[in-house]
């Protein structure tokens, strides 16, 4: 099923992949995935709700946390329909345009999350290294501008990337190797030269997640240098304690991303289901873990969540 448009062949549909070799167990495999989706959606929704409704949380640090929860929620919902559709109904078909749309949201929210983590690192840097100017630097108007900048940065480069993809011809297999549309996966199915697409895609990754990771590392080098200059050991522990949640969020975002890249590059002899499982879990770990980390490690969030839960029980 191919459609012809200006000498470019586009498939009417792509075929997504479940867990190769475990198709008969999809209904059972869906149970832990359903639990992960339920945890991610309820956890991030709760974080957003308590930050919006609790006036004591109307501070820069928690505004940035709400941005993180929003991107996690968007990332989670971007794959929900296709992944559970495959597990429950074996609904593997996805149209070319729908595939491009899903790619836009998956990669867009991923890049936005990277930007939010960078902004949160900057927030911790200002709070620890220049606390007297914290409120002066991170005003509400600037935080709103930062939010808009994160959205624009995360999505603007994707438009030309997807337009370049539309100019490729797909005359080979239309079977993707994930339960969702992933740019490198779709690009591999093209029977035309993809050098420009690959180079542009790599440039986007380097200028977003790559650059962000370097700047986050630099911010913590400066934070550590500043904290070590504090004479009181108690004050040092307190300063480092405010960073634990953010460091954990950075780790659960970048470690699965690096692991997935290593598996794709060096795990050619691994069973096919290993690649698919890691790819599926990679997009779910941050949305699931971030609300748990901030609810456990951040006292104000924990108190607000417990207050909300107990008020519902009364």
TrEMBL record:
Record carries keyword Cell membrane: yes
Keyword Cell membrane belongs to the record: yes
Family statement drawn from the similarity comment of this UniProt entry: Belongs to the G-protein coupled receptor 1 family.
Biological process according to GO: cellular response to lipid
Domain G-protein coupled receptors family 1 profile: 43-294
SUPFAM superfamilies: Family A G protein-coupled receptor-like
Protein name stated in the entry: Olfactory receptor
Organism: Chinchilla lanigera
Compartment annotation: Cell membrane; Membrane
CDD domains on file: 7tmA_OR51-like
PANTHER family from the UniProt entry: OLFACTORY RECEPTOR (PTHR26450:SF36), OLFACTORY RECEPTOR 56B1-RELATED (PTHR26450)
InterPro entries referenced in this protein's UniProt entry, alphabetically: GPCR_Rhodpsn, GPCR_Rhodpsn_7TM, Olfact_rcpt, OR51/52/56-like
